[in-house]
Amino acid sequence: MEQNLNGSKSYLISIVMVAVLGGLLFGYDTAVISGAEKGLQAFFLGAGDFTYTDGWHGFTCASALIGCIIGSALSGLLASNLGRKKSLILAGLMFFVSALGSMCPEFLIFERGVATYDLLVMFNVYRVIGGVGVGLASAICPMYIAEVAPSNIRGTLVSWNQFAIIFGQLVVYFVNFIILGEHTNPIIEQIGQGVNAVAPGSDPWTITTGWRYMFGSEAVPAGLFALLICFVPETPRYLVMVNQDKKALAILQKINGSKVGEQILAEIKNTITEKTERLFTYGWLVIFVGIMLSVFQQAVGINAVLYYAPRIFADMGMDKPMVQTVIMGIVNILFTLVAILTVEKWGRKPLLIYGSIGMAVGAFGVAVTFGNPSLAIITMLSIMIYSASFMFSWGPICWVLIAEIFPNTIRGAAVAIAVAFQWIFNWIVSSTFVPMFNMKTAGDPDFGHWFTYGLYGVICVIAAVFVWRMVPETKGKTLEDMSKLWKKE
Question: HSE on the CB side for 380, CA within 13 Å?
């Protein structure tokens, strides 16, 4: 009887844990390329019908981001028409197909082990499919968690999704390390402008097989996610939208208890008019704030550090760049836990502002010290400060706000737009980092180094001002309160 009055925490935790597996796959899929890209590059350098240039390799490494933009743009439509649960099942299946297809892009069509232009196209198709899954999961997983979580712990539970993303990245670093084992990555030599060749003596196993196992390893968590998501309930808010109030009430009462469940259902029914309200029903400001939260999360430059960490540490003269990368991954997880433990105490805005300031300090520290061997330790510590500050602020808190800041009536479409902008700017930052970082002038060969991180530092300062002046605090508010909040604006 007590469980019926107070709700079941174990039930809530179990369904949230399944949902955050989508976050883990998000991190796993976006980071798996870091370990596989050299073997993949060496494999396609052996193609006989075209030249696999740096441009092709850059596109291939980033092709999943194209799918991410597509998936996030479609997420609102799918979430509103298929429902949150079915959309996540679809994302899981896409992860699974992408993992197996990327491992063996020749399947049923091409001769195995023979690199060709057509095979490269097929590989990128599979990576785009996985990217669509990432785009869907990135928008719908935090939305799902926010719509089942009680308001007093919603921020904490949505923050676990970011923890899962970072944990997924760390897991795949270790998985790639284990798969590589005693083997070594191939050595790539530049033989012309943008043209490379595999150096003699490179380990043939990593060229023919290693990268396949790395991509294929994702099939295990992807299959598990696609299976387990079948056993979680649809969100009560979506069920009310499709006139299944009894099912919605049963889930709300199981999570929150009998009386509270009835109260929440009444609040939902008072705000659910999705079919009759348009995107700008609550004005342009709520959409603008949601989009800019996504833009700043990427424009501060974090993915330039996460995606290229081994390369950055190598350029700093570190003997074992993968060791520093793993250390940074562990630090990232610890500081993500800081956000989880404080988001409901301190609120969303303070964490974002403090994190922006910390990132600015770290970015300016890198800008000032990079390239000076005597200050290499300070450079590394500045990168750690920069990354750690992101992990307790913009990393998890941006997802919390995007999942909760929009009124019920426009949430699906608004989240889709905001997350699509996030992936667009992810692609912009990721694709511009290396050219900016390598910029040189006649009088300053390190111009690109300090300019790039100086630019990120300036953006961090602007982000802090934006949050201070324009982002409302949502701590402790129900999702139904968001309608009142923006009606007052």
Answer: 22
